[in-house]
Design a protein that fits this description.
Strand order of the largest sheet: 1-2
Structural class: mainly alpha
Radius of gyration: 13 Å
Number of strands: 2
Strand content: 5-15%
Helix content: 40-55%
Number of helices: 4
Order of helices and strands: HEHEHH
Largest sheet: 2 strands, parallel
Length: 90
């Protein structure tokens, strides 16, 4: 379905995953590695996701092609994930 929507309608997909290997799971669904990101499933991580995704969607909608989104769309989320380390949430 993802590949169909991307090719037929030009949709773009972003995959965020907490407590999983987001890149691996995204690939299984047909989402590119550069559109997948792990994050911390807490109030700080989720707030950061909303801010970053808001910026990413705004950039994507303003651009003539999805390539304009760039591979660094998730740099802030990635930095936060690395800074705070991998955690287990219960």
């Amino acid at each position: 379905m993802v590949k169909h929507k991307k090719s037929k309608y030009g949709w773009e997909f972003i995959f965020l995953g907490a407590n999983i290997d987001a890149v691996d799971v995204a690939n299984r669904f047909g989402v590119a590695e550069n559109r997948a990101q792990n994050f911390h499933n807490d109030s700080e991580g989720i707030a950061l996701n909303y801010n970053v995704l808001s910026q990413a969607v705004t950039s994507f909608r303003a651009a003539p092609s999805c390539a304009a989104l760039g591979d660094n769309w998730s740099a802030e989320i990635q930095a936060d994930y690395k800074k705070r380390g991998r955690r287990t949430y219960t």
